[in-house]
Structure formats: structure tokens, C-alpha cells
Amino acid sequence: MVGVLIRMKLAIIRHSMTGGKAAWMVTGGAFGLLFAAATIWLTFVDIAEPGVLGDLLACVWAMWMLGWVVGPLWGGSAVLRADHFALLPVPRRKLALGLLGAAFVGVTTAVTALAFLSLITYAAHLGALPALIAVPAAAGELVFVVLLSRVAYALVGFVATSRIGAAVTGVLFAAMIVLSQSGWMIIVAIMYSDVLTTGFSATFSTTLRWIPSSWGVVAVDAAARGDWLLVLGALASLAVVIGLLLLIWAATLGTPRRSRVTIRGTSHAPVPTGGLFAGPTGTVFRKELRTWWRDPLRTTTATVPIAWALLTTLLPLTFDAKALLPWAGPAVALFAITSACNLYSQDGTALWQTITTGAQHADVRGRQLAYLTVFGPISIALSIGFTIWSGYAWAWPWVAATVPALLGGGAGLIIYASVVAMVPGPDAHKRPDNPLERADTTGQSNVLFWIGLLPAAPALTAVILGDRLDLPVLLWAGGPISLATGIALAWWLGAAAGKKLTATGADMLHIMRTGRNTATGRAATGGVKLEVSKRDATIGILYWIGGPILLFPQGIVPFVFILVGVDVKSWFLAMYVPHAWGLAVAGAGILIGIFLCAQAVRITFRNKAIRAQREAAAARERAEAGGGDLDHELEPV
User: Which of 1, 45, 109, 418 fits 98 for a cystine, CB–CB 3.0-4.6 Å?
Assistant: First the structure.
């Protein structure tokens, strides 16, 4: 059975991973290889204090374990979904073993296996016997993290079926993201502490080694000391945990389909005849607000940015630092863009109602208003409250220059991305038991995180100039500039999304129903899919990733830090060289980042032009066929 499932998974990957998806797989694999190489490199670091290297390796392995838990929650449904085999007369444990075997065929598993070779290289420094013990220990840890991710995915999905459970899931999800992304804080804390010379505290070291991801290190260290009882205990405990996880996972595969959560609204409510809730846009606005309130998937979508912003800005308080508190509001506005970038896919084929009524522009505006209503007040409240709490009066112009632009720009970006980069997922009324099995928007979210920073650039430029030139008028001009930028972007991108939805709504509906482009579109282009080449897609994604990184965290941020005298090194390369050279390094980062961003925009618009030409050809083909395509698409809905 394992062989059949592996062949099935490879066939699905071969036929679905094209264009952008393949590019994201290659990009993710490249970053994974870098992290795996860094993990192995850690075992060759010369540290005098015995036991410290083992603790550091255990810390890194704990981060890998968290990554395996977070990854499936963010990425959506697996390639092989268990409910597809629900009607087969296959014992659940046999199915679990088969799916587990198939799970080892993938880029993430291969990269993790490479990273876990670090246990063998670490043990090789301790002797031949520890190296031999490291082989089964590393293999067991790999099986453990794969099973843990499956069990966590199933259990979190079970909790997320209600609105309260969805909110709790969002908080847990955000917490795991923060823990995963804040590894640099741990590295900074280790670098500036005496850990490398004195070692971790006994309490921390003991607690760390009680985590199952550390039991391989425990077994290797015990083998080096000749404590074979502890070696057997660690390996046996790991085997027991693996067995328990397998049993739990098998049990979740056999549970009957759960009833759907139904949240009923008020009846006989009067129809508004005036104000913000009246008219086509007001109707969509009311519908969207109810969806944000009633749909558990929207609850998770709204909870994750708020929890992520709070945890990110509150975490430095553990180091008695309040520097991030004023940025809680901007963080909500920024991360909301990545969370709500696939709204039309969440509604599924209900899009036919918008298409047949000709309410595309009203639909876009209503969704934008609802987005601002959900995330606007909380962003503003956190900005005001946390800035007062921090006591940093200098932060007010900076916060005022970011929040309006991020909110307005976000309202434009999320609706435009939902139309032009829609990722089809399970239809709203056909969602599987696990609400986490949704469209995989990992690529869109990563790109939008960096693009979402751009709307605040003009206002922040004015604030920086006002601060450096000591011009209060220019310093406080950032707020009005930010507000104007936000309104302009929301209006412009919303209008563009409305036009795009009007032109390609039928194609979007077909993609959501089938996951493929329309037949007329392929016929009009000679059977060529509306996809860009893998090479162009890969280069574009690399530009979109590298450009913003060089422009902001390696360019503008250290450049401003050096100018205003902030001494925070973190991962800012320019902060590790003398100030004169630091300005040069940061300036080079800005120039190269702008160049890469310009190249990314050029490639994106070139691909967009190609798509537009093909879509125009498809439209001409539909017109020649009598314009019956839309009716044909809507008939089975």
C-alpha cells in the first residue's frame, strides 16, 4: 500500500506543481537546504564548555520540530488527504502506515533528514559508539516530527470547527509563528550572554532535554559517558512516543464525519434604506461583516494577525525592552494583508451571484469596507494604547506615518490579490471536517508581507527627513501623507480589482470549480496554459524575496539606525562594520534592493501582459462562439 500511495503522491505532484507552485517549491527547498547546512555547521563550532553544544543543538532541533507543526497549519491541505480514502475498506492503522510512508516522499522531509544528520556529525566528535547510536536516534526523530505534524494538524483542525476553537487555533498558530520567527532573538540573547562560556542554567538545560526532539541528543551524550541505561531509556521513550502518535493519528482517520457548525442570524431584520448599509455596496458590506463574524475560517483569519502582532511586540518585554510596543498597531495592519489575501477563494463558487448580478465593483468595495472595519479599529487602538504604555514620545510621528498607509494599502492589496492571484480551495459548503484544509497561500502571503510595507514608504521618508533636518512640520507631515497614500491605494487597487473581476470572473469561477483554466482559454492559445514559464516564475519570486530583504532590513532600517544612533545589531549586516562603512553597506543594500524590486515588477508586468494577451484571445474565442461560455460555466453550479 505504501508503494501505491507514494506513486499516487508523485503523480499528483508531477501534474500540479507547475509554474508558480514549482517555483515556490524550489525556493522553499533552497532556503531549507541553507537552514539544514547551518544546523550541520553548528556541530563544528568549537565551544570549550562541555554540554553547551548539545544544548544548542537541542534548541535548534526544537525549532525544526516547531517548523513541522506550523508548516502544515499554514500551508493548508496535504497532497494526500485522508478523507479521500474514507470509503475504502482499509484498516485505519494500515492507512496511517501507508500515509506515513508517503509522507517521507517530499522536499520538506528530505531537507529535514539532511538537517538531522547534524546529530551524527555531533556524535562523531564524541566517538564511534555515540556515532552509531546517533543513526537510529536521528531516524527516530525524523519519524517523530513527521507524525507530530500530522497529529497536531488533525487535533487543531478538530478544535477549529467552532468560532471559539477557531480563535484559539489562530492564537496557537500565531504563537508558533512567533516562536519560529524569533529564533534570531534567541541567537542574539546567546551571543550577548555568557552562555557560550558558562553554559545554560541547569533548569533550562534539564527542561530542554525533556522535550522529545532532544532525546536523540540525550542518547548520544549518554553513550559518550557510557550510561547505556539512559541510552536505552531515551531511544525506547522515543519509540513509545512514535507508537502513541501513530495510534492517535490512526484514530483520527477513522472518526465519522462531524456535523457542521451552523450559526444562525437574526430574522425579519429591516432592510436599511439609507446610510452605509444601503445600496449594493452596503449590502455586500453587511454580508461581509456577518461572514467575518460567523465563519470559523474568517475567525482564524482575523485572529492570527492580532495575536501575531501582540506576541511579536510583547516578546521583547522578556528582555525588559519596550522598543517594539509602539509598532503593535502597524504590525496588525501589515500581517492582516498576508492573512486575508484570498477572500474570493474562501467564498468558493458563490462568486456566480456576483457575476450574474453585475455587482463586481460593489462587491469589491463592500469587502474593502468590511476589511477596514475588522482591522482598522484594533490597529488604531493598539497604536495609541501601546505607544502610551511604552512612554516613547518620539514614536508618535512614526506610528502616525505607518498605520493609515498600511490599512489603506492593505485594503487595496488584499482585494487585488484575491482576484489576480486567487488560489482555489475547498468550496465553502463542501469544506472537509478539518477547516485547516484550505487553499495553500504560503507564496502569496510571503510576497504580500514585503509588498505590504511599500505603502508606508512615502510617509516614512518624510518623517526621516523631518527628523534628520529637525523640521517638525515635515516630521508631522508623515500622518497626512500616510492617510492620503492609504486612501489613494485603496481606491486605485479596488478599482483595478473590480475591472479584473468583471473581465475574468467566469474564468475565476471555472478555476474554483475545477482547479484548471477554462477550456476556451486553452483552445484560444493553442492549448497553451495561462502559466508563465518555470524559469521566469522562479526568477520573479527570487527577486520579490531578495529585493525587499535588501531594501528594508539590510538597507533602510540599518541606514536609519546608524543616522539616529541606535545600536542594535541583530541580523543587520551594516551594523557589524564601522559606521562609515555601515552607511556604505546599507546604501548598497538599498540600491541593490531597489534594482531587484524593479526587476521583479518588470517581470511581473511582463507576465501580466502575456496573460492579458492570452485572455484577450480567449475572450475573442468566446465571442465568436456566441457568448455562451458564461452560461455554460454557471449552469452546473
Answer: 1
pLDDT-based confidence at residue 47 (cuts at 50, 70, 90): confident
- What cell was used for 286? 453587511
CA nearest neighbour of 305 among 329, 271, 276? 329
Q: What is the pLDDT of residues 100-146, one digit of tens each?
A: 777 777 778 888 888 889 999 988 888 888 889 999 999 999 999 98
CB atoms within 10 A of CB 62: 17
Question: Is residue 68 within 8 Å of residue 146, measured between CB atoms?
Answer: yes
Count CA within 13 A, CB hemisphere, residue 101: 13
- What is the C-alpha to C-alpha distance for residues 428 and 447, in angstroms, rounded to an integer? 25
Tell me the C-alpha distance between 250 and 7, whole Å.
21
CA dist., res. 463 & res. 481, Å (int): 10
Question: Whole-angstrom Cα distance, residue 367 to residue 383?
Answer: 24
Q: What sign does the CA torsion over 191, 391, 460, 380 have?
A: positive
Cα 181 to Cα 176, 284, 290, 317, distances in angstroms: 9, 36, 33, 16
559-589 pLDDT, tens digit each: 777 776 666 666 677 777 777 777 788 888 8
CA 307: distance to chain centroid?
14
DSSP of 337-380, one letter per residue?
HHHSS-HHHHHGGGHHHHHHHT-HHHHHHHHHHHHHHHHHHHHH
Three-state DSSP state, 391: coil
pLDDT at position 528: 43
Burial of 293 (0-12, 13-18, 19+ CB in 10 A): middle
Query: Which residue in 307, 298, 301 sits closest to 328, CA to CA?
Result: 307
- Cα separation of 602 and 596, whole Å? 10
253 and 92 Cβ atoms separated by less than 8 Å: yes
Of the candidates 202, 232, 231, 234, the one whose C-alpha atom is nearest the C-alpha of residue 215 is 234
The DSSP letter of residue 570 is T
* Of 120-124, 271-275, 284-288, the least confident: 271-275
Side-chain half-sphere CA neighbours of 555 within 13 A: 17
pLDDT at residue number 599: 76
62-99 pLDDT per residue, tens: 888 888 887 776 655 666 777 777 777 777 777 778 78
C-alpha–C-alpha distance, residues 234 and 87, integer Å = 39
In tens, the pLDDT along 239-265 reads: 999 989 888 888 877 665 555 556 666
Listed range (236-250, 358-372, 587-601, 616-630) with the worst mean pLDDT: 616-630
Q: Are 112 and 142 in contact (CB under 8 A)?
A: yes
Q: Which residue shows C-alpha cell 510617509?
A: 459
Instruction: Say how many Å lie between the first and final Cα of the chain, rounded.
Output: 36
Task: Provide the b/e sequence for 64-84 (b: ≥16 CB within 10 Å).
Answer: bbbbbbbbbbbbbbbbbebee
